[in-house]
């Protein structure tokens, strides 16, 4: 299945559901806990939609920490990774760390960047003075992980 031509996240999840692709949704209680992670700012709609569909596991993200079992530790893990690498970069209050891979890279979005925010990355193997923008939208980023 390739979704390059259709970058609509709702269509993406509908297509996965039609072929019974393995994914485990979050419960309403899980979503409430997520919302409390950012009490003064609203989490983006696309992120909440993703977690509603696959927040407790999806096959194409095996090995990547993003699910409810991981989400509460990701910011601390990102801070530790930056410190271990003596990076001058810092995690700001408006940056939401939503995914980490194998302890050497993480992704985040800005909480004030709308319902489908841009995605930024830190990868310890890439030398840079700033975080790298890897996608203009969270929707495209999620779909690209499947297409990868």
Automatic annotation (TrEMBL):
Q: Where is the Knr4/Smi1-like domain?
A: 25-142
Give the transmembrane region(s): none
Please give the superkingdom of this protein's source.
Answer: Bacteria
Concerning Pfam families, the annotation shows:
SMI1_KNR4
The record's listing under InterPro entries reads: Knr4/Smi1-like_dom, Knr4/Smi1-like_sf
Q: What is this protein called?
A: Knr4/Smi1-like domain-containing protein
